[in-house]
Amino acid sequence: MTVTIIGIGLIGGSMAIDLKKRHFADKIIAVDSNKLHSETAKSIGLVDDISNLEEGIRKADLIIIATPADVTLNILPDILNKINNQTVTDVSSTKYGICQLVKNHPKRKNFVAAHPMAGTEYSGPWAAISHLYDGKSVIICNHKESSEKALQETEDLYGALNMQIIHMEAKAHDIHAAYVSHISHISSFALALTVLEKEKNEKHIFNMAGGGFRSTVRLAKSSSEMWTPIFEQNYLNIVDVIDTYIEKLQLFKNGIINKNKNDIENLIKSANKIKRII
Amino acid sequence: MTVTIIGIGLIGGSMAIDLKKRHFADKIIAVDSNKLHSETAKSIGLVDDISNLEEGIRKADLIIIATPADVTLNILPDILNKINNQTVTDVSSTKYGICQLVKNHPKRKNFVAAHPMAGTEYSGPWAAISHLYDGKSVIICNHKESSEKALQETEDLYGALNMQIIHMEAKAHDIHAAYVSHISHISSFALALTVLEKEKNEKHIFNMAGGGFRSTVRLAKSSSEMWTPIFEQNYLNIVDVIDTYIEKLQLFKNGIINKNKNDIENLIKSANKIKRII
């Protein structure tokens, strides 16, 4: 099977490695408006060929759109216009807007809205790694709007990536994604901004940062190109979660200011319940 | 050399493993008011002997207090009263209060105030691991108030643990620790509380949590016993950092509500500067 990946960065590139290695794809074609990305992908062996959008679509059996969420919204209708009967799937972290956008497209059934929940704080084809998806979950949204063939091909694709497939309505997906993914990025960006503002001595940050700070601030390295459109597209859910998050921080602040040991203990013990789950 | 470790949990226990393995200590004695902890430490081979406080002090060449910060404040003066000429060092994450407390103690010179900046989200002797300290930093505070002998012995101890030694005034330490350690824990506890409140379906948290959420929420597993006293003792600095943190979150919220793409991009790009440091 020939797989065309539109947008060959961390996400698309990591798929390319394992889809080829695991013989899901015989040939992988990269389409990327950023020539540096597509040429790097070719030169480091992530993909077999580079082509333009039209040719990439024409030659593909399966098309993966792995661009930032705003680009995906922009190009998906055009891609659906151009396909014959191939399957098209996307990877973006917000699903409601995109499902609404193509709801009535004549080729809607060829499209499968998916969100593989994996990544790192790095980006670009040079960040692509094998095994990125192994054991993680992929959310497939509004699967009844896809044809059986398109759904099966997409599920086979994620099967080859060793992902657990979960079906969910797009609206519910965006709410859950705000809780378990989007807020983590905001908390981490805000933490980096706080530390960079308060701690003018960068040497102190470097020397004193233990594993705890490193792990909470890791996501602050994530790219604006990827995350700005996600925050824009999922803004209602995200603002709601930020509000709750600020409330919880204020509970800590009040407990600490009032030297209310019991309150602080109870907050920490309630937070500890996350242990049962993760 | 015989080393007595008072409080044999993650921190003391991890020291015990490497101090013995690396021949810094010939014998390690555990003192712990929690019998389960001291007996576990003995039975899993972390320490050679268990004893009470008096005997532990008498037999020791070097005494490490590795208890939660409130316990350390409670027991340090008494320990200094009981020593002959041994060195006593502590590990607590707040240093100003403790340095103030023993400032005029006749045995002040035998004490070295230290903060090895390493840990995990787990606690108890069963959480102790080898190599916990390798390559991390230890902050030694107000070192001029310690005798040369006590300082040398403590620096040798941390040398055996492969730590980078940094000298700092206790007051400055507590400010920096609020930025690069304490706020990370609060951000993580608050994140856990937020997600547990918003996401009633625990299965969704488990299934949808990618590496990003896992890493930002990891510290929320940390124990109340350890962290409540740290927040109490460093409350002024911590409240100041929480305020800045909430301001930064509000900047994100405003950018997102107002759909101000430029603002969001600029915030993320500023946060990305943490890459240069960590």
| Secondary structural class of chain A | alpha/beta
CATH topology of the largest domain in chain A: Rossmann fold
Broad CATH class of the largest domain in chain A: Alpha Beta
Largest interface: A-B, 94 and 94 residues
Biggest β-sheet of chain A: count, sense, barrel? 8 strands, mixed
User: What global shape of chain A is seen?
Assistant: globular
Provide the CATH superfamily of the largest domain in chain A: NAD(P)-binding Rossmann-like Domain
Oligomer: homodimer
State the end-to-end distance of chain A: 37 Å
Poorly predicted runs of chain A are none
Overall mean pLDDT of chain A stands at 96
Tell me the helix content of chain A.
Answer: 40-55%
Q: Spell the H/E element sequence of chain A.
A: EHEHEHEHEHEEHEHHHHHHH
Shape-level CATH architecture of the largest domain in chain A: 3-Layer(aba) Sandwich
Treating each run of at least 4 consecutive H or I residues as one helix, how many helices of chain A?
A: 13
- The radius of gyration of chain A is 21 Å
Number of strands of chain A: 8
The spatial strand order of the largest sheet of chain A comes to 3-2-1-4-5-6-7-8
What features would you highlight for this structure?
homodimer; 278 residues; alpha/beta; Rossmann fold; 6-phosphogluconate dehydrogenase C-terminal fold; 8 strands; globular
Structure description:
2 copies of one chain form a homodimer. The first copy, chain A, is an alpha/beta fold and 278 residues long. Chain A has 2 domains: 2-168, Rossmann fold; 173-277, Orthogonal Bundle (6-phosphogluconate dehydrogenase C-terminal fold). Chain A has helices spanning 10-21, 35-43, 53-59, 69-82, 96-101, 148-160, 170-198, 202-208, 211-217, 224-233, 235-257, 261-271, 274-277; strands at residues 2-6, 27-31, 49-50, 62-65, 87-90, 111-116, 137-141, 164-168. In chain A, strands 3-2-1-4-5-6-7-8 form an 8-stranded mixed sheet, with helices on both faces. In chain A, helix 7 packs across helix 11 and helix 11 packs antiparallel against helix 12 (261-271). The first copy, chain A, is globular. The relative contact order of chain A is 0.11. The mean pLDDT of chain A is 96. At the A-B interface, helix 7, helix 8, helix 9, helix 10 and helix 11 of A face helix 7, helix 8, helix 9, helix 10 and helix 11 of B.
